[in-house]
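Service request form, structural biology core

Requester: graduate student, group of Dr. S.
Request type: structure prediction, single chain
Budget code: on file
Notes: please return the result as structure tokens.

Sequence provided:
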Amino acid sequence: MVISREQVTGNNPGLKTTNELHFNENGLIKPREESKAAPFSQVLLDAVNQTDAMENDYDDLEKEMVLNPEKVDVHEVMIASEKARMSLSFLKSITEKAMKAYNDIMMLR
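Core staff response, request fulfilled:
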């Protein structure tokens, strides 16, 4: 599609906006809706609870493997072990970054 010079001259060339952050025909930007994101403390608490649940699942599978090895597949135990380890590592990393950010903010004072 070729647009001529006459079509794009003036203050309002008649182009359509495709992004909600663009100015509309009245020269205003549509206000953003407030996101319903959970606060950081809730996200962190949920991560701690999920990590705890993964570690409890691993502990239960490990006990079941020792007490009744024919009921539990060793692969399931190893997968649960790695999920718990990765989740704990991720949570530790988040906690360390949050503490570093807090300390950096306190040093700015």
